[in-house]
Specification:
This protein is α+β, with helices and mostly antiparallel strands. It is built from 17 helices and 25 strands. The protein has a seven-stranded antiparallel sheet with strand order 4-3-5-2-11-10-12.
């Protein structure tokens, strides 16, 4: 039985959704590298909203500015961006998947090692971070922050290899888990993806000849750069005066790219691993409709991430598609709640139903995923109060039964509603007339027509790399907020 005993709110760490991970961008060979990096981070803002930073190089010195908040908050004033001189830049937007959310953990991390400056921006998580940190501390290493990314800096600094590239490869060979990472030296960039390829990283070319690397292709679009290709799992790309050099120093293994990038994290206008995310999400909706049809009058999405899947669902069943929930895009990261109690205030602050569309209608509401169920419960209540005769909930992802250890800030297993309850119990908790999820097989077929090569551990429980603390994770009863 699902128990409901917490209240949640907008801006709360308990918000009922997966949190984005991080986004990285690198620029080599442009006189306004900082400006291009700034624009690229704007395009990647959805991947992290807690902090942003840019480090640049003019060939001899490194310049840095970092801050907490959105990209516009950190770099919206020219006095913060103008001092970032140079033709090389690396930038980062952060959500705290590992480490506390304070300025010390905002990336890129910048250090002096071996007589030169080195900056690093990282998207992912190391599953052996605790043991590596303990070993380094026992050898005298002093850590300034709590982010696992700082481990890379210490490993590079302690490497016995002679060249910077070999030091980076040596450091990366000691960490396990997910890393799409960009290193910057005074005269070049080094970009790399882990051998399993959990997180995306692309290579682009600017019309003026500059090289750009970024977490998603939408960052290239904003600066008029052409997508050259994905950086492959296990590949290292060096960008400097000699051009672009690629090599693969790590043993080849079967790739395990994060399937949730297609389901939710990447922007729908991103071209990800050979496919347009928007079209993948439409196929997810079509497959969901085949597997879990509903006798209804119209289909509405939970905006914005559920829109494409809801369109596919409506197309497959030849039902009308409408934007029955309107999203307020100007909700800040914090707010002052009214002294008068307003039921479901947090969700109503972000979403408002279009009553004229919903009155006396049988409504299918499509969302991209279901985590705790608290937000969906409130949405169903809103739709019923707006006159909907029936509310059928459809989820364009399978039931989430486990946390992610590879760069997504997911709740613990104890907080995941599908890990602790049967589907019909979830339906009763959210108050829907019916509930349906896409199957794991249906998801894979919709994403890449069964070609494989994806990590689906949060749905299947099959973890390709085990976290060193996995056996110590609590298996507790589920208590939900409402």
């Amino acid at each position: 039985m699902v128990t409901d005993h917490h209240a949640d709110s907008i801006g709360s760490s308990k918000a009922d959704h997966f949190h984005d991970e991080c986004g990285v961008v690198g620029v080599w060979g442009h006189p306004e590298a900082a400006n291009l990096a700034y624009l690229g981070l704007h395009a990647l803002q959805h991947r992290g909203q807690e902090g942003a930073g840019i480090v640049t190089s003019d060939g001899s010195r490194l310049h840095v500015h970092r801050g907490r908040g959105l990209v516009a908050d950190v770099f919206g004033r020219r006095e913060n961006l103008d001092p970032l001189e140079g033709h090389i830049a690396v930038g980062h937007v952060r959500y705290s998947t590992a480490g506390e959310s304070d300025l010390r953990n905002v990336q890129p991390i910048l250090v002096q090692t071996g007589g030169m400056g080195l900056a690093v921006a990282h998207n992912g998580n190391f599953v052996n971070a605790r043991s590596l940190r303990e070993e380094l501390e026992s050898r005298g290493a002093i850590f300034q922050a709590t982010s696992d990314t700082e481990l890379l800096v210490h490993l590079v600094a302690r490497s016995s290899q002679r060249s910077v590239v070999n030091k980076v490869v040596d450091a990366l060979s000691q960490v396990k888990g997910a890393w799409s990472v960009v290193f910057m030296t005074p005269d070049g960039l080094i970009a790399a993806r882990d051998p399993l390829g959990f997180r995306p990283l692309v290579l682009g070319r600017h019309p003026e000849g500059a090289w750009i690397v970024a977490s998603e292709s939408c960052a290239l679009d904003l600066v008029d750069a052409e997508l050259v290709r994905d950086i492959d799992p296990g590949e290292v790309v060096v960008l400097d005066r000699s051009g672009a050099e690629s090599f693969r120093p790590f043993p080849r293994v079967e790739k395990r790219q994060c399937i949730f990038e297609h389901l939710y994290f990447s922007r729908p206008d991103t071209h990800l691993w050979g496919q347009d995310v928007y079209q993948v999400r439409r196929r997810l909706g079509r497959t969901l409709a085949k597997e879990r049809p509903a006798d209804a009058d119209l289909v509405i999405p939970v905006p914005d991430s559920g829109v494409a899947s809801a369109m596919g669902y409506a197309e497959e069943l030849e039902l009308p598609f409408h934007l029955g929930l309107v999203r307020n895009h100007y909700v800040g990261r914090s707010f002052i709640e009214p002294t008068q109690q307003i039921r479901d205030f947090g969700v109503k602050l972000k979403l408002n139903p279009v009553r004229g569309l919903l009155a006396d209608k049988r409504v299918v509401v499509v969302d991209d995923s279901l985590v705790r169920g608290t937000t969906c419960r409130k949405i169903v209540r809103m739709l019923r109060r707006s006159g909907a005769a029936e509310v059928h909930l459809r989820i364009a992802a399978p039931p989430t039964i486990g946390p992610c250890f590879y760069g997504i800030d997911t709740p613990s297993r104890a907080e995941l509603i599908a890990a602790n309850n049967e589907i019909d119990e979830i339906g009763r908790f959210v108050g829907a007339d019916s509930i349906g999820y896409i199957t794991v097989d249906g998801m894979h077929e919709a994403v890449n027509e069964g070609a494989g090569g994806f990590c689906d551990a949060c749905f299947s429980g099959q973890y390709p790399v085990l976290h060193e603390d996995l056996e110590r994770l609590p298996q507790l009863p589920l208590f939900l907020g409402g």
